[in-house]
Amino acid sequence: MGHTLLTNQRNLTGTIQVPGDKSISHRSLMFGAISEGKTVVDNLLFSEDCLHTLAALRQLGVPIQVDEAHQHVEVTGVGLDGLQATNQPLNMGNSGTSTRLLMGLLVNQPFPLTFVGDGSLSQRPLKRVTDPLQLMGAKFEENEGHLPITMAPSKGLSAITYKLPVASAQVKSAILLAAIQADQPSVLVEKTVTRDHTERMLQRFGGEIKREGLTLTVTPKPHLTGQHITVPGDFSSAAFFLVAGLLVPDSTLVLKNVGLNQTRTGLLKLLKCMGAVIEISERADDSEPTATLTVHQQALHRITVDANDVALAIDEIPLVALLATQATGQTVITGAEELRFKETDRIKTVSEELNKLGAHIAPTKDGMVIEGQTPLKVIGKQNVDSHGDHRIAMMLAVAALITEGQVDLQDAEAVAVSYPTFLTELERLCGGVIA
Ligand SMILES: O=C(O)C1=C[C@@H](OP(=O)(O)O)[C@@H](O)[C@H](O)C1
Ligand SMILES: C=C(OP(=O)(O)O)C(=O)O
């Protein structure tokens, strides 16, 4: 397992183009595969997670042409009834999104399918997806609530009226992808608003979905039409540089073409509450809005974060914790229990690893209590560990930039799950100080 040595910095200055959005990349491959005609995807994210989705679809007989140098992909849609059986398991790697969305997408096939994943993914909860799919008529031959799972050949799917028990875009999307193949319209009620990329893309490919408050009604529409999708830069990847720009003395960073879908940008609202000013320019809107973000180092103050905030910033909460260690006052995060079911238990890994650098973070059942104005400082060199979690690795790399002393980041290569070039980008901005 690789490690990376980082030291504290001043004056992080530069322009960054973060890679394509992970959530939208997964969805464009999946919708392209089950549509009729060609789907062209520009700026697809070539990260480990998205490559697991791509490989699984190819394994099911979907022709996908890849030009990785230009982040360009062409998917020849085979339609929902054109997928081919496979006698090998579909390997989901580390990717919760691939697993949950593909289970919904593939639930109505006339052949069995087995899903497997790595050690971390095999611990993550799947009953939240298999329960509603079973209510729709799906049968599972092997199902302990986590991978490996085998889905039996389908005997047809019934519509569902379902109140989501968790705030999860993956669960919502799995049900929506199954519901387009059901016999009648289905109705889903969200617990709170979560990212709506599936809803937007379904409409773009010719599906019918309506939202009224937290209620979604989706009409069966198994025949969709291929599209040209340009994937915006990933807000969740941009967030690491936004936070670095806010924390590292004398910094100015410009982030180009960042996806600003409001169901993803809860971090911007939280930053505003902390007193930060982020400049937004060059706004554009295809079926997903984008803009350029400019950030300078600034003083911040404490906030409280609740379940509604968490749902709109779910992958950015580790960064909120880091920001809070440097803000004035005590920050309290509640309603974040879902963090315990990510690639690691992020309440545990965030508090344990940042505390190694001098932070005072007390984990709670559903969040964290974070003391502000705690300078990060180590004597000599301190090891911190990503525990194989890409977002923990990147958050700790940003923390290292403001830590006095040397930080040795273990298992740094986990970044490849969502942002393979993250450390190279960081090194470029720092002027080549990463060993
Ligand atoms: O739908 C998606 O693409 C995602 C939804 C979120 O997961 P949950 O739905 O489990 O909260 C998020 O954490 C993940 O990175 C991507
Ligand atoms: C939780 C994440 O992804 P996934 O659920 O797809 O593994 C993430 O990217 O932070």
Automatic annotation (TrEMBL):
Its EC number is 2.5.1.19. It is found in: Cytoplasm. Its main location: cytoplasm. GO terms for molecular function: 3-phosphoshikimate 1-carboxyvinyltransferase activity. Keywords: Amino-acid biosynthesis, Aromatic amino acid biosynthesis, Cytoplasm, Transferase. GO terms for cellular component: cytoplasm. It catalyses: 3-phosphoshikimate + phosphoenolpyruvate = 5-O-(1-carboxyvinyl)-3-phosphoshikimate + phosphate. SUPFAM superfamilies: EPT/RTPC-like. One of its GO terms (biological process) is chorismate biosynthetic process. The keyword Amino-acid biosynthesis applies. 3-phosphoshikimate binds at residues 22-23, 27, 168, 170, 315, 342. The active site is at residue 315. Residues 8-425 form the Enolpyruvate transferase domain. InterPro entries: Enolpyruvate_Tfrase_dom (IPR001986), Enolpyruvate_Tfrase_sf (IPR036968), EPSP_synthase (IPR006264), EPSP_synthase_CS (IPR023193), RNA3'P_cycl/enolpyr_Trfase_a/b (IPR013792). Pathway: Metabolic intermediate biosynthesis; chorismate biosynthesis; chorismate from D-erythrose 4-phosphate and phosphoenolpyruvate: step 6/7. CDD domains: EPSP_synthase. Belongs to the EPSP synthase family. Monomer. Catalyzes the transfer of the enolpyruvyl moiety of phosphoenolpyruvate (PEP) to the 5-hydroxyl of shikimate-3-phosphate (S3P) to produce enolpyruvyl shikimate-3-phosphate and inorganic phosphate. PANTHER family: AROM/DEHYDROQUINATE SYNTHASE, PENTAFUNCTIONAL AROM POLYPEPTIDE. This is 3-phosphoshikimate 1-carboxyvinyltransferase. It comes from Secundilactobacillus malefermentans.
